[in-house]
User: Which sequence fits this backbone?
């Protein structure tokens, strides 16, 4: 923990009694007796830590995990041809894409639609449990984990785009038509909910226990 | 989100190529270029520089009316 500019013993804005604006980064003092207010520069709401961060993130994460099941079990795309209609789930779509030339695409979809949401839910769950228990270990790794979760989040949207574009472009009635199926809405909900969960999590909470220990020991 | 959409469009087009002949038009290549230009623009833009200018203006405003704004330091 000595290779960065910030160590657990660094002065934090909270210990200095200052609020940091999430919008423009300005540090400001709150009005006497207050713990939140408005940023004097950009007018955004500033608070010491995101309000009810753990509770909100837990709620959004559980909602995302609940949507993850129908997202994978229900079909995401219905193809209607003269021969009849056929529905595919996400995993069936991955299998369909798998061919000697198309396997990289299949892997992209597998990563973006199955592994990333799963990893995000697991990663955020781990962060919430360790922060809830006040862990002071692996702080830098946990911060990095949070950054990764935040960064990769939108890439799971790929499958939603693939299916909506396929549905929009393949409208050759009565020969062939593709339309989105219920699973797609659940899948989009998973992506949006995990992104909101990552957004409502306050990474500063990872460092607070370490900072408190440091303060107590001088 | 544009780069995610681009990847989604490409995957969708390749999927459709199984059923029909797909000829990428000029706009697809331009969209690809746009993604790189936007990424370069975002990387070279420093919001702190812009905020610093606003702050300069705001400091003047504070001098004119000291009690209007809360005390802050940078």
Assistant:
């Amino acid at each position: 923990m000595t290779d960065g500019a910030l160590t657990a013993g660094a002065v934090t804005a909270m210990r200095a009694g200052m609020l940091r604006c999430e919008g423009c980064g300005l540090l400001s003092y709150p009005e006497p007796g207050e713990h939140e207010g408005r940023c004097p520069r950009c007018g955004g709401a500033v608070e010491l830590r995101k309000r009810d961060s753990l509770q909100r993130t837990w709620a959004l994460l559980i909602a995302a995990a609940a949507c993850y099941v129908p997202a994978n079990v229900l079909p995401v795309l219905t193809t209607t041809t003269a021969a009849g209609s056929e529905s595919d789930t996400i995993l069936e779509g991955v299998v369909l894409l798998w061919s000697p030339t198309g396997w990289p695409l299949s892997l992209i979809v597998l990563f973006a639609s199955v592994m990333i949401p799963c990893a995000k839910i697991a990663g955020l769950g781990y962060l919430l449990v360790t922060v809830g228990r006040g862990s002071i270990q692996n702080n830098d790794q946990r911060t990095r984990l949070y950054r990764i979760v935040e960064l990769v989040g939108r890439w799971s949207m790929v499958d939603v785009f693939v299916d909506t574009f396929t549905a929009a472009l393949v409208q050759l009635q009565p020969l062939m038509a593709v339309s989105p199926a219920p699973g797609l809405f659940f899948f989009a909900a998973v992506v949006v909910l995990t992104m909101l969960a990552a957004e409502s999590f306050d990474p500063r909470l990872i460092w607070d226990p370490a900072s408190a220990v440091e303060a107590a020991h001088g | 989100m544009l780069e995610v959409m681009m990847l989604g469009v490409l995957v969708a087009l390749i999927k459709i190529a199984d059923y029909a002949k797909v000829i990428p038009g000029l706009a697809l290549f331009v969209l690809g270029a746009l993604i790189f230009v936007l990424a370069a623009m975002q990387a070279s833009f420093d919001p702190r520089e812009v905020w610093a200018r606003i702050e300069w203006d705001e400091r003047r405003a504070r001098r004119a009316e000291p009690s209007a704004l809360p005390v802050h330091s940078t």
Notes: The mean pLDDT of chain A is 83.
